[in-house]
Amino acid sequence: MKLPATPPNALDLWAKLSPERQEELIGASGKVATADSYLHWDELRRRPPPFGLTGEEWWFALKMGRDASLRPIPLLDKTAVNFRFATPDQILGQLHEIDRGLGFIVGLPDLITKPDVRDSYIVSSLIQESITSSQLEGAATTRSIAKEMIRTGRPPRDKSERMILNNYHTMQRIRARRDQALTPELVLEIHALVTADTLERSDASGRLRRADENVRVEDAEGTVFHLPPAASELDARLRAMCDFANGLTPDFFIHPVVRAIILHFWLAYDHPFVDGNGRTARALFYWAMLREKYQLFEFISISQILLRAPVRYARAFLHTETDGLDLTYFILHQVGVIREAVEALHEYVRHKTAELRAMEKCLRGLVGLNHRQQTVLAHAFREPQARYVIEGHRRSHNISFQTARDDLFDLVERGLLTMRKEGRTTAFYSPKDLGDKLSKAAEASDNTALDMTIPIEFRPAVD
Asked: Which of 68, 99, 114 is the last residue of a domain?
């Protein structure tokens, strides 16, 4: 990725203009400021300017309109200048959609009102976020292998799997700490969890980088994209970041989602650790969203969206740094990512709801089965070669070992699963005639309604 072009210096441009032209541009600033989508100079310079303006004059008029609405936050750059942000209409509209999509539980009653179902789906979401967040940082493994590792509880076999397992444990810890204030100690704890046994220098886990540790953000060709502040500033910066995260600063209202996004940027900008900064930044973002009671964010994987377009994420960061520390670029990008993730969640719910209804005919006759057993049968019906183990079933639904054992053995007794010993492990498989057995059960049904508490996540643990 190329570095974005640096915008023209506004003061230099202003000095070149005649008084008459200066007055004309002042009058035009309000008109052109609402006609764009908050473009950076690197994008704006490739477009034809409005009639009567040069490209640089167009940029200057836009900047005059934008600068009037920018508000400073306590985050400082390396020269002690404040970062600033605005909330133009593009951001306000998306914040409204996010509030509607994440602040209410209408349409997802089972996930919220049924604790066992909720826990099962949250486990799946945590796994998804853990995998994609690690993949953003270079972890290389398949999702099926990663899910198998987490659900069965086996030890990680390489660094990539360790990164994913660390992220999973970190996300669990964040859920437990959501109501606590953010402190430097908690940030270091999160970093230690994220990076355990994955760093070249094991002593760097859970501590700030030192002055002798040359940390920079660069690509494989050596192009430097970001040089973070000096290590000597990190203690003070970390305390200031925690004050901001806890709402102690600044002295004006910031929308909770915007505050969470800025917290994400703040950690990434300061880059206080030798490694694991991106994963820690995303973890803090999750903490902030959950702390602000965005209930459905437990079911969201934001890294899954970022993974599809990592260059857009990096470019939004660089646009902020190169254009007067204007955080609006990064905020605009992130609210778009969140809105896309919310839409993906609701689309997934619609798809799985339709799938549930389609399977109702086959499962309607299975009176006396709980939702966990119905989930296993639904999965076995679609994937007849799947293998199930008690520990995997336990992890999938966040239940006790005995409950998981009872679920699977009951299905064996009903003839809906087969069982065999494989070493010290008891493995369960679907019988070859499972489809026939489900069809016969449906025909014999007395139209007893299906237990619609079946989790939306139709993927129980497989080994």
From this structure: 68
Here the CATH number for the domain that contains residue 147 is 1.10.3290.10
In a domain, 461, yes or no: no
In tens, the pLDDT along 158-213 reads 988 898 888 888 988 998 999 999 999 999 999 999 999 999 888 999 999 999 99
Number of domains in the chain: 3
Q: Is 58 part of any domain? A: yes
**Could you tell me if 64 and 120 lie in one domain?**
no
Of 141 and 194, the one with more pLDDT: 194
Residue 221 lies in a domain: yes
Range of the domain at 399: 364-443
**48 pLDDT more than 50:** yes
Predicted pLDDT at 219: 80
How does DSSP assign 81-135, residue by residue?
Answer: PEEEE---HHHHHHHHHHHHHHS--TT-HHHHH-HHHHHHHHHHHHHHHHHHHHH
CA dist list (Å): 8 to 36, 55, 319: 18, 10, 13
* pTM of the shown model: 0.78
Inform me whether the pLDDT recorded for 244 exceeds 70. yes
Percent of residues in the chain assigned helix, strand, coil, to nearest 5:
60, 5, 35
260 assigned to some structural domain: yes
Instruction: Please say whether the dihedral angle defined by the alpha carbons of residues 192, 285, 69 and 328, taken in this order, is positive or negative.
Output: positive
